[in-house]
Design a protein that fits this description.
- This is Acyl-CoA thioesterase 2.
- Keywords: Hydrolase, Lipid metabolism.
- Homotetramer.
- One of its GO terms (cellular component) is cytosol.
- There is one protein chain.
- The protein is of the alpha+beta class.
- It has one domain: Porin, CATH 2.40.160.210.
- Helix content is 17%, strand content 37%.
- It has 5 helices and 12 strands.
- It has a 12-stranded antiparallel beta sheet, with helices on one face.
- The radius of gyration is 19 Å and the shape is globular.
- The chain starts with a helix and ends in a 7-residue tail after the last strand.
- The relative contact order is 0.15.
């Protein structure tokens, strides 16, 4: 396993402080605050450590309350809301410097037989091998991207990402439909641990998610004067999957208003199985009025 992927797996393997209390370290991705996917993955890890192994997460509903500091650890306080005959419910509060920065409710269930149907995967999606990597696209626009962010994006990373969209200017893109598709997988194989694959999908699901709501407006998250931040995040897990095999995140933004954008997504395996659904509302605030022109 590569060093960066091993470090991410370690980041999601929390230290148990005492019963229902866990501590996780933070990583600096060059954004000045903790990446939302990190807190999602760590909080899910904390919750799962209090649940029997045969039950796996099937849904989570999270709120981002404050920006996380990259130079501080995060404490996760797990509330064992309910252990029922079919479902287990946990609430987790992420705390930094004595303040709640995030909370999530997650529900766990053992797999059981039942009715099944799903939306079909879009047809004609280019294969990931035929597309430029995220790093290659960033390299094309290197002169426009802040140095610290560029260094992080071009360094070794735990995930391979292939954007199906045409490469876009990261500062002043042309307006386009509020849609995005991207392929992603870890750079190396992972252990056969379903819980770990859930944590890593939660981690990856926040990547390039809210920025889909910016596409109709000719701005990007790096556009000067734009403030972009996740407000909440929801996931439903439908079928087993592996994050070390290519997954396609199909994202659409149905609405934006009052400095908020809504995005919804579907995650498919390469052979078209819908394994997860995602949704997020985020702040997309143009702090500089010029951005609205």
């Amino acid at each position: 396993m590569s060093k960066v992927l091993s470090e991410l797996v370690s980041l999601l393997s929390l230290e148990k402080i005492e019963e229902n209390l866990f501590r996780g370290q933070s990583q600096d991705l060059g954004w000045g605050r903790v990446y939302g996917g990190q807190v999602l993955g760590q909080a899910l890890s904390a919750a799962a450590q209090t649940v029997s192994d045969e039950r796996h997460v099937h849904s989570l509903h999270a709120y981002f309350l404050r920006p996380g500091k990259v130079d501080r650890p995060i404490v996760y306080d797990v509330d064992r809301i309910r252990d029922g005959g079919s479902f287990t419910t946990r609430r987790v509060v992420a705390i930094q410097d004595g303040k709640a920065i995030f909370h999530v409710s997650a529900s766990f269930q053992s797999r059981e037989p039942g009715f099944e149907h799903q939306d079909a995967m879009p047809e004609g999606v280019p294969s990931p091998e035929s597309l430029l990597s995220d790093a290659e696209i960033m390299d094309e626009h290197a002169a426009k991207i802040p140095k610290k962010i560029l260094e992080q994006r071009l360094a070794d990373r735990p995930f391979e990402v292939r954007l199906v969209d045409e490469p876009r200017d990261p500062i002043s893109p042309e307006p386009s439909a509020p849609e995005r598709m991207l392929w992603f997988k870890t750079v190396d194989k992972l252990p056969d641990d379903p819980a770990l694959h859930h944590y890593l999908l939660a981690y990856a699901s926040d990547y390039s998610f809210m920025t889909t709501a910016l596409k109709p407006h000719g701005v990007a998250w790096l556009t000067p004067g734009m403030q972009v931040a996740s407000l909440d995040h929801v996931m439903w897990f439908h079928q087993p999957f592996r994050v070390d095999e290519w997954l396609l995140h199909v994202v659409h933004s149905p609405a934006a208003s009052s400095a908020r954008g809504l995005v919804r997504g579907s995650v498919y395996t390469r052979d078209g199985v819908l394994v997860a659904s995602t949704a997020q509302e985020g702040l997309i605030r143009p702090r500089d009025p010029i951005v609205l022109e």
